[in-house]
Amino acid sequence: MVEIPAISTLLPEKHHLSNGRTLYAFPSDSTELVKIDFLYEAGTGYQPQKLVAGAANNLYTVASREMDARQLAEFFDYRGIIVDNNSDVLHCSSSFYTLHRHLDALVPVLEGLVHRPAFPEEEFEVFKNKRRQKLLALRQQSSEVARRLYYTALFGPDHPLGRYADPEDADRLDLDAVKQFYEEYHRGGNMDIVVSGKVDDRLLAALDEAFGHDRPSTHSHITSLAPASSNSQFSILNSQLPGSVQTTLRVGRILPLQWDDPDYAHFMILTTLLGGYFGSRLMSNLREDKGFTYGIYARTQIYRGVIVFFITADVAASAADAAEKEILYELQRLIDEPVSKEELDLVKVVLAGDFIRSVDGVFERAARFGDMLGTHVTEQLTENLREALESVTPQQLQQLAARLLRSDQLCVCRAGAL
Fold first, then answer.
1. Could you tell me the strand order of the sheet in which 246-255 lies?
2. Using an 8 Å Cβ cutoff, are 267 and 300 in contact?
3. Distance (Å, rounded) from C-alpha 83 to C-alpha 269?
4. Would you place residue 7 in the very low, low, confident or very high pLDDT band (cuts 50, 70, 90)?
5. Residues 6+ apart with CB under 8 A from 25
6. Neighbours of 85 (CB within 10 A)
7. Phi, psi dihedral angles at 222 (to 5 degrees)
8. Where are the domains of the chain?
9. Taking Cα atoms as reference points, which of 50, 52, 21 lies closest to residue 38?
10. What is the pTM of this model?
């Protein structure tokens, strides 16, 4: 039996600002660093045109009405403050890393950025050019082409998870649309705040002064990204990429499970066994035995209301057919043969260790909690995983594989040299 050690501080402390907003805190006395995360329900699924959400989330942090882009860059550089902006389908975030001694100077600057962003024309043009170049580069990457092909096949080109930007979309981007999107989806009332590191009363008071007076957001939230209908029949799609010397394979499906289903915790174990660590079955077969690839992985990705399972690998074009055959063979083997107790015990140790590492420190816990806010996952998933690691049997995994991993249920995508 494998047990996950009890961790009592996975959930944050909760503090309430003057306007009733909850501020989430992961304090630590062992560091002088502070990380302030602003999380918004303002991802690409809400944007009226492609690239608007990412532009709004990146550009509001480059200048305010009080500080132009050069002044702000100098302010951050002089104090060693790091800014990290990220966007996904429903959520976006801006993270600020600083030493505790700079908080008195930093928080008023953040208040100006959030409430009075400048959106300078020059920085907007820089963003457009950089994004255009990035999208041009992604067109040449077989792994990215396969990923897009896969998600578009599963969800359709009009679904937020199947809709992607092209370089031409950067040319069509309009600054007024970016500003309008920010006003509607970012403005303070639609913001969660998560702080981690050296959190004390001084920081909490400063954040309350800066952000404790916003009015709550009124825009409605997307409650689920589950497609209207799910394709669970076998399909294969190819995308030729001129000049590519390899082929990226991506195999998988939408799972008919939700994150709080105990079977999903069992499927996490099944995925780890299949391709979740260096000694997994897919790695042992396709890398160590056949030499088809440097790495092959099986993963699940939780989105709000839907979970996607996939296997991905980069292989030589001449090995693509054989690699696909071996992937399907390993999936069928999970259906035909119960895993041995020895292998299952090893997988349990691996997955338990991965979980512990994912929450080993306040910054890791804050990042994990931010993901939970975005997907609406709770600690019930942790409890389900702990129980699964303690009680799952080889027969349960075999039955789950027979239910969810049949070859006639899978989507197979290839991109690159065909």
1. 235-240, 411-416, 246-255, 306-316, 296-303
2. yes
3. 35
4. very low
5. 12, 13, 14, 15, 194, 195, 196, 199, 204
6. 16
7. -70, 125
8. 13-211, 235-416
9. 21
10. 0.92
Token pair in block for residue 349: 């140790």
Q: Which superfamily does CATH assign the domain made up of 13-211 to?
A: Metalloenzyme, LuxS/M16 peptidase-like (3.30.830.10)
Confidence label for 345 from pLDDT (cuts 50, 70 and 90): very high
The sheet with strand 33-40 has its strands ordered as 13-16, 22-27, 191-197, 33-40, 92-99, 82-87
Return the pLDDT at 234.
Answer: 65
Measure the CA–CA gap between 59 and 64, rounded to whole angstroms. 10
Report d(CA 93, CA 95) in Å as an integer.
6
Q: How does DSSP assign 242-311, residue by residue? A: TT--EEEEEEEEEES--TTSHHHHHHHHHHHHHHSSTTSHHIIIIIIIS---S-EEEEEEEETTEEEEEE
Task: Using CA atoms of 154, 160, 162, 165 in order, give the dihedral in degrees to the nearest 10.
Answer: -170
240: confidence class by pLDDT, cuts 50, 70, 90: confident
pLDDT digits (tens, 9 = 90+) for 144-184: 999 999 999 999 999 999 999 999 999 999 999 999 999 99
Q: What is the DSSP letter of 407?
A: G
Burial class of residue 316, CB neighbours in 10 A (0-12, 13-18, 19+): middle
- If you average pLDDT over every residue of the chain, what do you get? 92
CATH of 235-416, one of 3.40.50.1820, 3.40.50.300, 3.90.1010.10, 3.30.830.10: 3.30.830.10
Mean pLDDT, rounded, for 343-356: 90
Residue pair 408/234 in contact (Cβ under 8 Å)? The answer is yes
pLDDT tens track for 295-315: 999 999 999 999 999 999 999
> Residue 303 corresponds to which tokens in the numbers above?
């989105």
- Cα angle value 55/59/63 (rounded, 5°): 170
Q: How many residues are recorded in the chain?
A: 418
Judge whether 13-211 and 235-416 match in fold: yes
Say which amino acid occupies 190.
N
What pLDDT sits at residue 357?
84
Query: How far from chain centre, in Å, is Cα 89?
Result: 9
